[in-house]
Design brief:
Elements lengths: L1 H9 L17 H12 L2 H6 L2 E11 L2 E2 L4 E6 L3 E4 L8 E5 L3 E5 L4 E4 L2 H8 L17 E10 L2 E9 L5 E7 L5 E9 L6 E14 L2 E10 L6 E6 L2 E4 L17 H11 L4 H14 L6 H13 L3 H14 L4 H13 L3 H14 L4 H14 L1
Antiparallel strand pairs: 1-2, 1-3, 1-14, 1-15, 3-4, 4-5, 5-6, 6-7, 8-9, 9-10, 10-11, 11-12, 12-13, 13-14
Amino acid sequence: MRSLFIASVLAVSITPGASWAQAESLTVDQVVERYVAAIGGTENIKAIRNLVYSGGVYEEGDYTGEGSATMSLARPFFKLVGNQDEPGGYMEGYDGAAWEWFADPGIVVRTVGAASGAIRHYAGVDPPLVDYRAKGSTATIKGETVLDDRPVVLIELIRRDGFLEQFYIDKESWLIVASSSTAPIHAFGDEVFSLTRISDYRPVAGVQIAHRFASLEMPSGREQSSMQWGSIEANRDLPDGWFSPPSFERTPLQLFIEHLYQQRSDIESVMWTYHEFRRAYPDMDTSDAVNVAGYQILKMGVVDQAITLLQQNVRDYPEVPNSRFGLGRALRTAGRLKEARAEFEQTLMVDPEHDRAKAALEGMDRTNR
């Protein structure tokens, strides 16, 4: 049913209730072989050690980026979103494990769950269909249809961790022209179906690489956001540590946040660290730090521990609006909606102009209509 829904949105020749034509003439490996040949062939693909994307312009709604987005990929499994020479406010990467770096408040978190998957699934140089069996993936042909008056083959790829993605391969160019998947819109949110148009292929070291990715809003098919890369370079000399988190001297408060996060699966350890730190630094305001740690713990799906920590934060800082908002967000994630509403309302009692609390309550009201 999902494939039929996708076709009804994308393919002008498909109408609701129609069925996919079966791609009987080619096996999945034959389709993949033609795709690999179309983008440059195995020899050229394997000759690429790394790729550095730059000049990226991100657009969403009324927002247009400055054209400074960067990303690097390298063998065997490395990825960096950001620029180590100009770190900016946020970076993420994969150096054998997924990580996120926040300039404010100055912490590194090693991610798991959906947040890790979002980073690692496109780490490394090779596209997902290249050597898919060696990567532990399985691929099947789901059928054929027409996209923009051109015949396409739909390949469904299931990664080693169960992540499922579909690729639409043009039967004339044998390039991937779209992909689709279902994943959380954010690390602890509901799963959302997304479809991405892939275009603007240009040769890079003998390999055709897409420079434009546009996400479509469902079911309207309108473009919701896009990333247009200015240039992609291959085989640059990258410094050691390029794909690992930035090195910096932690303050006691930054270490406190990271220690709470690192111990997230053991609530007794978390709360011991919390109380001992506050006893050692009685004059230090820890409300924001704990809110940050609680949010990161929540992102990893460790919901009960996040709630326990954030409840203590509210007890110690009842008049800090973000403390109450952070607890409300965690309670909402846990499905404890009555308690979450109470915390959002208390947030507005402390700060009537708290925009995120207003938006949270409005969202809950819309859901209940």
